[in-house]
Amino acid sequence: MTLGKKIGFIGAGQMGEAIIRGLLHSGLFASDEIYAVDASSSRLEYLKDNLKVCNIASDGKKGYKYLVDNCDIVVFSIKPQVLKEVLGSLKDLDWDREKQFVISIVGGINTSFIEKYLMDKVPVVRVIPNTPMLVNAGASGVAGGKTASEEHTELTLKIFGALGLTFHVPENLIDSVMAISGCGPAYIYMLIEAMADGGVELGIPRNIAQTLAAQTVMGSAKMVLETGEHPGRLKDNVCSPGGSTIAGVRTLEQGKFRGTVMNAVEAGKTKMEEVAEKSK
Ligand SMILES: NC(=O)c1ccc[n+]([C@@H]2O[C@H](COP(=O)([O-])OP(=O)(O)OC[C@H]3O[C@@H](n4cnc5c(N)ncnc54)[C@H](OP(=O)(O)O)[C@@H]3O)[C@@H](O)[C@H]2O)c1
Fold first, then answer.
1. Ligand 1 center to residue 38 CA distance, Å?
2. Which of 188, 212, 5 is nearest to 99 (CA)?
3. Ligand 1 centroid vs 107 CA: distance in angstroms?
4. Do 104 and 111 contact (CB within 8 A), yes or no?
5. What is catalysed by this protein (predicted)?
6. Which one of 240, 254, 268, 279 is most buried, counting C-beta atoms within 10 A?
7. If you average pLDDT over residues 164-176, what whole number do you get?
8. Which pLDDT tens digit goes with each residue over 179-238?
9. What is the whole-number distance in angstroms between the Cα of residue 129 and the centre of ligand 1?
10. Which pTM was predicted?
11. Mutation test residue for ligand 1: of 46, 66, 77, 78, the one with most atoms within 8 Å of CB
12. Which residues line ligand 1 (CB under 6 A)?
């Protein structure tokens, strides 16, 4: 049973596609309830051929009007650099603020910037999703703008909740959510790759080493999520005195592992703020 609503995506790149795939998989939306506008005609053809999303249009005012005229929810899934131009075309359209709202996943751009640009014609909810949504294991932060109702936030939590875990957070924390769960998958892929490389060097075939590393990351994450234990305690539990794991922990500490990861999270937020500032 679908939600009985229509959802339209402005930008159907990596994230747009990940969300569309997740929504179709969840059953909350059928393919004929999904609309997409993109600058790339090959992306649109791809959606049509692979996901049966046939309500598609090219970018530009005509395409955006097609979306706004038909959809209950309009998702901004474009890069921050093009948002201003898109908002310029959207502000003159006939929004129905009683029936419609916007979900923006655009990194670094707060709801007040979008609301102001759209002259408060439509409520805005901001979401920071991540690509593991594709396998139903996403982690998203959701924050409503000043005119978004509880109903808008709840519906957004429901939509992204079908794609993984969701957290309702104050908007002043949402860029920090991006720095952990939005950027984080890249860091974890690097960890898996590095652990697999280490295994290969020790003579384990690549496919086995990679699967062992990925399963270890997944299992360890499940331990943290399901036991609720502090990760430090779980680490202590697997470090026997004078053993091999503590020797590896020492090597990671010598390489400033935790400090480097903390710096990476901070660097992601700083970079996003710089890009967002230039896009305003
Ligand atoms: N990647 C992540 O994990 C992640 C996580 C959370 C949030 N976000 C945010 O999600 C947003 C989208 O990121 P992404 O990785 O999906 O980017 P992307 O793959 O580049 O997708 C953006 C799509 O929008 C299209 N586009 C460009 N200008 C357009 C316009 N004027 N109207 C309609 N479509 C247009 C692009 O086409 P062309 O390629 O032809 O330009 C592209 O297909 C970003 O704001 C990012 O900050 C990303």
1. 9
2. 5
3. 10
4. yes
5. L-proline + NAD(+) = (S)-1-pyrroline-5-carboxylate + NADH + 2 H(+); L-proline + NADP(+) = (S)-1-pyrroline-5-carboxylate + NADPH + 2 H(+)
6. 268
7. 95
8. 999 999 999 999 999 999 999 999 999 999 999 999 999 999 999 999 999 999 999 999
9. 13
10. 0.92
11. 78
12. 10-16, 37-40, 43, 59, 77-80, 82, 86, 105-107, 128-131, 178, 182
Which domains are present in the chain? 7-171 (3.40.50.720), 184-276 (1.10.3730.10)
The minimum-distance atom of ligand 1 relative to the CA of 15 is: 16
pLDDT tens readout for residues 221-270: 999 999 999 999 999 999 999 999 999 999 999 999 999 999 999 999 99
19-61: per-residue pLDDT in tens? 999 899 889 999 999 999 999 999 999 999 999 999 999 999 9
